Amino acid sequence: MSDSLQNPQVDGRGTSHLGFLAFVLLCFFAASSAPTPLYHLYQQAWGFSSVLLTVIFAVYALSLLATLLVFGSLSDYLGRRPVIWIGLLLEIVSMLLFIAATDVTWLIAARVLQGVATGIATSALGAAMLDSDAQQGPLLNSITPMFGMALGALGTSSLVEYAPLPMGLAYGLLLAAFVGQAFYLLRVAETVTPQPGVLKTLRPRLAVPAQARGTLLVVLPADIAAWALGGFFLSLAPSLLTAATGSTSVLNGGFAVAALTLSGAISIHTLRLRAPRLALLVGCSFLAIGVSVILAAVNLGWLWLFFTGAVVAGVGFGASFLGALRLLMPLAHAHERGALMAAFLALSYLAFCIPALLAGVSIKTAGLVSTTNVYGGVVVLLAVSALAGLLIQQAGRARAA
Fold it and tell me: Does residue 24 carry a pLDDT above 50?
């Protein structure tokens, strides 16, 4: 393989394709949130329970996590392009399943396949973006998924509200985008040389080095709070807004997800060069305040206050994840970072789906608003406990100095 293919910056092609790679990543995460505004419509049309609704959401997160853990390093051995192409192919099939869906079984199958596709593609896309531009790649890796989720939720809810074919148009547009990307990918230069040893990478390795365990215990409550909030928004926010405010507009669900994820992306961009401890302090504070405002809005039935709380909580969501990751990862030695990152992602994705599943079960007996009050209360408690842990740790360091 020539130098220009191994290093795309030799002839500038890799940098020129950075925008394309970011667009593909954006579309994957737009597709991940596209079903969110439709969940309530599916539930009304097919008459399934809130438990099944959260199962449909959770199987995506669990299949994505399992795929990341097993296939996260695949592109280091097979090359970026073939792995991204496999992810696109699987995502195309998942879009077809969504379009053809006639009951919950189809939705679950589509979500599982979508989780596998996203897990395979996003790790390869993230690596390819870093290969292409060492400066802009990390930033785009951080904020593109959040912009994608906002676009998917808001775009789908707008199409449902104002366009024909409410159950299929968003998937059709995404399908067309993925097909076009699969063909364009043939023009993108490969950035790594394929190598043997791929089977060794298929054994997931989760480990937290001894020197990182204390910090993990401090940041974990904040990380769980942030991801649990994200899981709740992406699964139950549209149903909650209808139950709490009486508004039946599908746009509300899209605006809720967009408010959370866009403010999260902005906070990541704003705090990316600041000290990670500051980012985590900001994240914990804004999470606790934002969720408290959301709970007040739910109990008062005020839609505008809910969106205000979502924006504040979104700042906390992005800042908490950024701060926790940047505080934790430097504590691992080079040969330990992959296993620590895998462990951190596993904990994050479990927090993303398991609490939402428990909420779905609780709704059956306690109701949606009561379940939200308990769920939000736990999120606030976790954020406050993480904030207290950080301040205690900071005070101890100051005394030691």
Answer: yes
Cα(183)–Cα(44) distance, integer angstroms:
38
Length of the chain: 401
Do 237 and 254 contact (CB within 8 A), yes or no? no
Cα–Cα distance for residue pair 110/36, rounded to 1 Å: 14
Domain final residue pick, 180, 204, 228:
204
Which of 173, 204, 235 is at the close of a domain?
204
Four-point Cα dihedral 61, 65, 67, 72, nearest 10: 140
Instruction: Tell me, yes or no, whether 265 and 200 share the same domain.
Output: no
Q: Which residues have C-beta within 8 Å of that of residue 335, sequence separation ≥ 6?
A: none
What's 336's DSSP letter? G
- Identify the residue with better confidence: 242 or 137: 242
Greatest Cα pair distance, the chain, in angstroms, is 65
Q: pLDDT tier at 16 (50, 70, 90 boundaries)?
A: low
CATH number at 21 reads: 1.20.1250.20
The end-to-end CA distance of the chain, in Å, is 54
Q: Per-residue DSSP letters for 92-138?
A: HHHHHHHHH--SHHHHHHHHHHHHHHHHHHHHHHHHHHHHH-TTHHH
State pLDDT tens for residues 265-314.
Answer: 999 999 999 999 999 999 999 999 999 999 999 999 999 999 999 999 99
> Does 138 lie in the same domain as 109?
yes
Please tell me whether residues 113 and 259 are part of one structural domain. Answer: no
What tokens does 378 get? 């736990």
Q: What is the C-alpha to C-alpha distance for residues 22 and 312, in angstroms, rounded to an integer?
A: 26
Contact present, 268 and 146 (Cβ < 8 Å): yes
CA dihedral sign, ordered 210, 378, 353, 126:
negative
